[in-house]
Each structure stands twice: as C-alpha cells, then as structure tokens.
Amino acid sequence: xxxxxxxxxxxxxQRVLVRVDFNVxxxxxxxxxxxxxxxxxxxxxxxxxxxxxxxxxxxxxxRPKGERKSELSLAPVAQRLAELLDRPVEMxxxxxxxxxxxxxxxxxxxxxxxxxxxxxxxxxxxxDPDFVSALAKLGDVYVNDAFGTAHxxxxxxxxxxxxxxxxxxxxxxxxxxxxxxxxxKPEKPFVAIIGGAKVSTKIGxxxxxxxxxxxxxxxxxxxxxxxxxxxHKVGKSLVEREYLKTAESLLxxxxxxxxxxxxxVDHMAGSExxxxxxxxxxxxxxxDDGLIGMDIGIKTLELLKGLISTAKTLVWNGPMGVFxxxxxxxxxxxxxxxxxxxxxxxxxGGGDSVAAVNKFGFxxxxxxxxxxxxxxxxxxxxxxxxxxxxxxx
Length: 393
Ligand code: AMP
Prior knowledge:
Layout: E1 15-19, E2 26-27, E3 30-31, H1 35-49, E4 54-58, H2 75-85, E5 90-91, H3 98-106, E6 111-114, H4 122-126, H5 129-136, E7 141-144, H6 155-159, E8 166-168, H7 170-184, E9 190-194, H8 199-210, E10 215-218, H9 222-229, H10 244-257, E11 260-262, E12 267-270, E13 280-282, E14 292-296, H11 298-310, E15 313-317, H12 330-341, E16 345-349, H13 351-359, E17 368-369, H14 373-380, H15 386-389
Parallel strand pairs: 1-4, 1-7, 4-6, 5-6, 7-8, 9-10, 9-15, 10-11, 15-16, 16-17
Antiparallel strand pairs: 2-3, 12-13, 12-14
This protein binds adenosine monophosphate (AMP).
C-alpha cells in the first residue's frame, strides 16, 4: 500500500487544509510539552515553501465531547506555533461556519490560520456529512499529518479526504513507510518485543506478528498469563484468566511454525503493587504466593541482549515492567538501550515504550519512534486504518 504524499499535490496558490495532531498538554491556559507541534513543522514549512494561497490547520484537543470548553481551546497552540515558525498564526473563533469562512477569505497571501478544536462539534467524531462539507469549504486540497487519529474514521481524518484532493504529510508518510516495511518485507532475523499490561489489548498484535517474526518476546504483565499456561507459579501477578486459552493456542501455533517465543526466566517482584514495596529478586519462574512480578530480571535481560543485538528488524511495543516505579524500571530501561544500540531497522510504538525511550534519552538512536499509540497498534494488528486507506494511491 502506497499513500499519496505532499509531492503528489499541487499546492501553489491553493488553500491547503491540514489535519495535524496538536493534542498537546495544556494546563490553566499554559502549554506544556510541545513535541507534537514541533513534529508538524516539516510538513508545515514544506507547504509554506510551495507558495500556497493559505495554510489552514486543524486539530482536536482532549475530549470536549461536542461541547465548547474554553480550557480546551487551541489558542495557546497558535501562539507557540507562531513563535516556532517566526510568522503570524491567526486563531479562528471556531472550526466551521460563515465567520471562519470569512477569515479564510481575508487571510493575506500565504497566511496561516489555526481552526478551533474540531471536537467542539459532535460532527467531527460522528463523521457527519454536513460537518465534513462545512470543513471542506475551507480548503482546496487536504493533507493529513495526524497519525495518532488515523485509526479513527472521523470527519477531519476520513470524511474530508473523500471530498478534496488528499495526501499524507511527512509524519504519516514516515509511519506508513516503517510499519509497511515491518509487515511486508522485514529483513531477517525479525524480532518483536511486546510488553505492557494486558494480553487483551495486544493479542491482535501477537497473532498478526506470529507468522512474520523469527522471535517474539513477551514481557510486562502479559508474560504472567503465558507463564501460567505453562504451569508456572505466578503468585499474585496479573493474570487474565479469560485469555488463558488464547495464550495457550498462541504458544501452540508458535511451536508449529517454529517461531521462538521468549518469556521471562527471572523476575523482580514485590509483595504489594506499590512504588515503595521492597523489590525481591526471583531467580526462576516460580513466584511465591505473596509476590507480584513487576519487572524482568537480569538473566532475562541477558537473553534479550543476544536476540536484540543480532536483529535486522526490530519492533518494540509496551514496557517490560512497571517502569513508572523506580525499583522496577530497570528491565524497560535496559531494553530501551539495547534497542537504541541495535543496528537493524528499529521501530518503537505505543505510548509507554515511546515515553520510556524519550525519558531515558534514546529516541534519536531509534529509526522510527511512532507518534500514535492506538494507531500503531492497529497497524501492527494488520488492520487498515481508515484515515490512511483514503490516502492510498
Ligand atoms: P500498555 O498500555 O498495555 O502498554 O501497558 C503499560 C502499562 O503496563 C504500564 O503502566 C506498566 O506499569 C504496566 N505493566 C508492565 N509490566 C507490568 C507488571 N508486571 N505488572 C503490572 N503492570 C505492568
């Protein structure tokens, strides 16, 4: 699947309507981390360099659920964007309607306008045709650069791409390139490391990757459901009873197809799920009744080191333990470092593993750090993302 890109669109003298992901943290009117705004700059600058009539930006922020909520206004973003671009960015009073249309008309040549939060209107998430048409009036061509919402068929991600000439911005183009590479032509050995809290949210990914990878590492809390299937004692660790059968069948499929499943062989555990619980090292896969497994141990890390260092393609999604607790962060930290050192093609996705590589400062040594948690997961599940399917060539 190839998507249309910025190079496929005529941008000169056009009103270019761009869906970006400006869903940034804002508290008491003050903008926090602006990584997402920075991420959109290459696409924005490229469009401005092509001499468009105007650039109209649109995004959602938080979950106002179809109501106007002043604390979820994008106004602070317009300000920050103006500083970053070193040019004026107008803030629209809304995202559709006659007043906004007039502002678009009145923009000076090459002017930039940020529309107000799309989700102040219920029509955005409902992909309501009237709302889609109202948005489409504001542009001549459409660009989607918001990967984080590409798995949703919303008005600004899917509906509108059917009404205007449409293409992907640089961020989505890169996401598609890396995920497609993983799923269709990975160089071998291909290693997937999947962690996090729940089998239920990752099972689609595990199943889809099973016939593509050489080794599948299962870490985090998920590992205990699998260890439990294998008859190990998992103490008070998180086990999803309703997924025991699914886990068992995945293990059987892997065995049949010769895929190596790597589960932890030792653990850091604690008696309470609490930041201050005393860490207890368990040298094997038999956890006492009172213990909760909260991180992988050093023997497991040694095992992963060999696998990760020789991988030609690697994807990592989900932490190896409760990395938010200092005493149980080592497994995730060390895996982040191993992934950063891996010389193959490396992709990290999912909110927590991305947070981990950022927190530990490894992001710039990873080939692709995905900008969308849910969207990345659905890609790995092999699903067609509606916001990307409409941009296909
Ligand atoms: P996910 O959103 O599914 O990627 O899960 C991320 C969450 O999994 C993080 O908040 C981790 O603290 C949690 N997690 C990882 N390992 C464990 C574990 N062994 N027990 C409980 N929670 C865990």
